[in-house]
Amino acid sequence: MGTVFSFDVRGGEPGAVRAALDEAVAGLHRVNEVFSTYREDSEVSRLARGELTVGECGPEVAEVLELGAEAERTSEGWFSMRYRDGRLDPTGIVKGWAAERAARAIAAAGVNGVSVNGGGDVQVLGVPGPGRPWRVGVSDPLRPGGLAAVVSAAGADELAVATSGTVERGAHIVDPRTGRSAVTDLVAVTVVAPRLTWADCWATAAFAMGSREGLRWLESLPDVEALLITAGDEVRCTGGLARRLG
After folding, report:
1. What is the pTM of this model?
2. By the 8 A CB rule, do 160 and 192 touch?
3. pLDDT tens, position by position, for the chain (246 residues)?
4. Which secondary structure element, helix H or strand E, spans residue 123, and what is its range?
């Protein structure tokens, strides 16, 4: 997936934890093999060329396509799994989904808490220690090395933090209406939600919308908070974000 994944696991029986970690890492490699649009032999590439049907692909392909279709409906098309020419490209949802799936697989091994970081997008489950919540730093896109905020998972059994922006990867977010790079007043959108699958999608869609429309839309989503930063260093937040900071 062109990025680094890291794991922070607390508690659990060591042997079971090691086995779960090995399985999670193998699962991430499998996701890369199946969903890579750069590999000619991946199932997604072959599906896009019409060489396979969805039914002939592994079950995870149908699962991701269904989730992507739901994201498209919820965002009214601002999140899309297709290039301008109509070719299939589900990569916008795959990383968040894969990191969340890995975190849940490790949690099922009986650990007290787990944090999986996939290229800066984080899924946390459980707690790192008694009376201690997971805390996730949000990078400041305009001040390298600084933090724009710290998100706390206090009181939540599961929490995800995902950021979409132009600082690290350049103008890679596409406006689905034009098929070209999204041109907005934003440099970063960070979304906080229970599941990384959706947090990642919503951050991408809101970035393409721009700060005003993106904030309005994010406010309408249940269990979602967000931090939006404009190129002019203006910070805009959803109404409940303050409860998640600390």
Report:
1. 0.92
2. yes
3. 678 999 999 999 999 999 999 999 999 999 999 999 999 999 999 999 999 999 999 999 999 999 999 999 999 999 988 765 678 889 889 999 999 999 999 999 999 999 999 999 999 999 999 999 999 999 999 999 999 999 999 999 999 999 998 665 555 566 666 666 666 889 999 999 999 999 999 999 999 999 999 999 999 999 999 999 999 999 999 999 999 998
4. strand 121-126
CA 20 to chain centroid: 21
Amino acid in position 57: C
Q: Are 119 and 3 in contact (CB under 8 A)?
A: yes
Whole-angstrom distance, CA of residue 173 vs CA of residue 64: 19
Question: Whole-angstrom distance between the N-terminal and C-terminal Cα of the chain?
Answer: 31
Identity of residue 82: R
Q: Coil, helix or strand for 101?
A: helix
Give per-residue burial for 114-128: e unless 16+ CB within 10 Å, then b. Answer: bbbbbbbbbbbbbbb
CA 168 to chain centre: 15
Whether 161 contacts 140, CB under 8 Å: no
Give me the helix-helix angle, 14-35 and 59-74, nearest 10°. Answer: 70
Q: At a CB cut-off of 8 Å and minimum separation 6, what does 200 contact?
A: 92, 93, 95, 96, 97, 121, 160, 162, 164, 191
